[in-house]
Design a protein that fits this description.
20% helix; alpha+beta; 133 residues; three-stranded antiparallel β-sheet
Length: 133
């Protein structure tokens, strides 16, 4: 299954044992600029941008290892809708769109239909598509 993720083009995810998955836009030093904070504030909305922890069924349960799962989208349309209005901000900060091929069992879609997570242990391939647009 193909999924899409906005991640930094060079910074690996030092919060994870999965070096192939780079930092997302809400994590670490990449999330501290004023423009990043504006995006984070805008995305703090339960209806348009639900928390991944609330959106994924059993996030708080023992059904999967959270440290192996990363936010993504099952379509480019979902990704574009989620980050609408922030493409320039993301590009300026060094983010790109990555396309991951993941075993279908490794993808969990959010109950909202707006986002998903994938299990990094089930990645079959990855390619960088390019700038966020």
């Amino acid at each position: 299954m193909i999924v899409y993720r906005v991640e930094h083009k060079v910074k690996t995810n030092y919060y994870s044992v999965h070096d192939e998955v780079n930092l997302g836009p809400y994590v670490g030093a990449t999330a501290t600029s004023k423009s990043a904070q504006r995006m984070s504030d805008a995305h703090n909305n339960d209806y348009t941008h639900p928390s991944i922890r609330d959106d994924i069924k059993n996030w708080w349960g023992k059904d999967f290892e959270r440290c192996d799962h990363f936010c993504c989208f099952v379509s480019m349309e979902q990704l574009r809708t989620w980050f609408d209005g922030f493409f320039e901000t993301l590009n300026r900060r060094g983010f790109v769109i990555a396309e991951y091929e993941v075993d279908v069992e490794g993808v969990i879609e959010g109950m909202s239909g707006l986002q998903a997570v994938f299990n990094a242990n089930m990645v079959c391939g990855k390619k960088i598509i390019g700038k966020v647009k």
